[in-house]
Amino acid sequence: MVALPKPAVKNISPFILNQGSAGLNSQSEIPLIDLSKPDAKHAIVKACEDFGFFKIVNHGVPLDFISNLESEAVGFFSLPSSEKEKAGPANPFGYGNKNIGPNGDVGWVEYLLLKTDPSSNLNELPTGFGNNPEKFRSAINDYISAVKKMGCEILELMADGLKIQQRNVLSKLLMDEQSDSVFRLNHYPPCPELNQASGDGATPPNMIGFGEHTDPQIISILRSNNISGLQISTRDGSWIPVPPDQTSFFINVGDSLQVMTNGRFKSVRHRVIASGSKSRLSMIYFGGPPLSERIVPLPALVKGTESLYKEFTWFEYKKSAYSSRLSDNRLALFQRIAAS
């Protein structure tokens, strides 16, 4: 009998999650919001206050847009590394593998980060992508257009729920021609070594797919295939696993929206745990304002109170956020410190 060599655990050790003291809380339920219901605006506000995160159904995004993009993305990530790398290295746009940003963060993930300007995405795709890179670009642009429309509807319902008279006060930032929104395709490949490294009969350790962080933009709109892995952090620091649903979307409150609501909404910390045996694919639209936009609390939400944050532009915050580590509290530098 030939004995198989044990996997090189050191090769995957940088990706093993240190659980720390915060455990999983599987009892909390993720808020579910039906966009077709008349009370959606109030439900959105409550979800943003309690979780900074919620699930959307009856969203109006055509299912064929979703399935077409997933098919194209699976095709891309199935290519040999030499072909995928023609779209990289990510700087920040393009193809990346395991390295997340320039500051030392790593994850068991490969990805494509793209601009949302329809004229730019073809240039970010590899020349060797199958026989028809135009088909991939078309699928990306159809999907982004539909998801952006849904995101604007959510932001307008949010404004209604907050009783802000100008209901497009948030959505206009995504609709602006200079909107600094981006789109990301993440692929978390299986890692059989993870199961083997745990030893016979032992529970395999968790592997970091994408480390804990908040999103710096206004909102993020996430959709994944039917493989689990996403977790969000609650106010007490415990983690809630998010059951996957490939026909629905999940919405994250971003740091910018936390500031614009003067802390009433909290940006949600989240992470992805990779699987030893299953491949997870996610697609995320990050809705951001123009680079020159001043990020300040909305006047309607600070009547009689002071702003909790210093004034800054999206360019200034983005520059600061992308020079930090994933898990850093990026807003801490922009909070007002009470006089002693």
Automatic annotation (TrEMBL):
Residues 178-289 form the Fe2OG dioxygenase domain. One of its GO terms (molecular function) is metal ion binding. It catalyses: gibberellin A1 + 2-oxoglutarate + O2 = gibberellin A8 + succinate + CO2. Pathway: Plant hormone biosynthesis; gibberellin biosynthesis; Hormone biosynthesis. Pfam families: 2OG-FeII_Oxy, DIOX_N. It is an enzyme of class 1 (oxidoreductase). Catalyzes the 2-beta-hydroxylation of several biologically active gibberellins, leading to the homeostatic regulation of their endogenous level. Catabolism of gibberellins (GAs) plays a central role in plant development. Converts GA9/GA20 to GA51/GA29 and GA4/GA1 to GA34/GA8. Belongs to the iron/ascorbate-dependent oxidoreductase family. GA2OX subfamily. This is gibberellin 2beta-dioxygenase. The lineage of its organism: Eukaryota, Viridiplantae, Streptophyta, Embryophyta, Tracheophyta.
